[in-house]
Write a structure and sequence with these properties.
By secondary structure, the protein is α+β, with helices and mostly antiparallel strands. It has 3 domains: 88 residues, Rossmann fold, CATH 3.40.50; 98 residues, ATP-grasp fold, B domain (D-amino Acid Aminotransferase, Chain A, domain 1, 2-Layer Sandwich), CATH 3.30.470; 63 residues, Dna Ligase, domain 1 (2-Layer Sandwich), CATH 3.30.1490.20. The strands form 4 sheets. A 5-stranded antiparallel β-sheet has the order 14-13-12-15-16, with helices on both faces. The chain has a 4-stranded parallel β-sheet with strand order 2-1-6-7, sandwiched between helices. A 4-stranded antiparallel β-sheet has the order 8-11-9-10, covered by helices on one side. α1 crosses α9 and α2 runs antiparallel to α3. The model has no long low-confidence stretch (mean pLDDT 90).
Length: 292
């Protein structure tokens, strides 16, 4: 099969892992930097050019779209869809899940528990907003942040108001969330491929840090998860329309709280911690849904 990987660099771990997995199963692989793909919208023959050469013969794509280029990445995926190329990530699913507010609204509306959260464009409402969320401390998140960047722990209400005002003045979109102290700086990443859980790990924040992201110095270990956590993760991915997803959640006494459903989860952490061939699972998923 001719498989295309949409990635900004062939040097990235996830891209390399997917290339190896595809080649081991005798597939031909090409990597396209989606930001260098030129889209031609044509009723008769939609097409994409890469370095001024038309892309032909690709039967399936595996998108690896970074958060900073979501919209153009989605446009490239949609064009491949118009060309009847199978994709492991739909354009609409990427856009829905990447928008933190939309994602939480959709999950909450479908019965998935999420942390109490709030946002407002009215700077005069911040005092009221914080009171409605919880008592301090608060989590303040940039809506377009990733890898733990743009996430701040505010220990007091006055400090939270100052942070919100600063973000407001820079026209940055942020949301306020209730801080879940019982999680003790840890969360769970559940990796899903085609409706199956293929890897789970618990991430723990470094000492003096509240963010558990491995990019922020956190550590991780392989864990077993409860039936409720499994069902919650699978339902969250299904609701967001994602066949390949990383579902992040907190463990609480009242059950799991979903933080995020990642449409382009990294493979390095989950493969290293679990020892599972996640990339191979993704290639098998492509094979299953796209006839040779």
């Amino acid at each position: 099969m001719n498989i295309g990987i949409l990635s900004r660099s062939t040097a990235l771990y996830s891209t390399q892992s997917l290339i190896r997995a595809a080649q081991l199963r005798n597939h031909y692989v090409r990597v396209f930097d989606h930001m260098n793909c030129d889209i031609f919208i044509d009723n008769d023959r939609p097409r994409i050019y890469y370095n001024n050469i038309e892309i032909k013969g690709i039967q399936a794509i595996i998108p690896r779209i970074g958060s900073t280029v979501t919209k153009y990445g989605a446009a490239v995926i949609r064009q491949f869809e118009a060309m009847n190329v199978f994709t492991t990530l739909d354009a609409d699913a990427l856009l829905k899940s990447r928008d933190k507010i939309s994602c939480m609204q959709i999950l909450s509306a479908n019965g998935i528990r999420v942390p109490v959260s709030a946002l407002s464009h009215n700077i005069e409402n911040y005092n009221f907003l914080l009171d409605q969320v919880s008592l301090p401390p608060y989590i303040i998140k940039l809506i377009e942040g990733t890898h733990g960047m743009g996430v701040i722990l505010s220990e007091s209400k006055s400090n939270a108001e100052s942070i919100l005002e600063a973000f407001y003045s820079s026209r940055s979109k942020v949301l306020v969330q209730k801080f879940i102290s019982e999680a003790k700086g840890s969360d769970i990443r559940i990796f899903i491929v085609d409706g199956e859980i293929v890897g789970t790990m618990k991430r723990q924040a470094a000492k003096g840090e509240f963010r558990s992201n491995l990019h922020r110095g956190g550590t991780a270990e392989k864990i077993n998860i409860s039936h409720e956590e499994k069902e919650t993760a699978l339902k969250a991915a299904e609701i967001m329309g994602l066949k390949v997803a990383g579902v992040d959640m907190l463990q609480t006494k009242d059950g799991p709280l979903v933080l995020e459903v990642n449409a382009s989860p990294g493979l390095e952490g989950i493969e290293s911690v679990t020892g599972n061939d996640i990339a191979g699972k993704i290639i098998k998923f492509v094979e299953k849904h796209r006839k040779w």
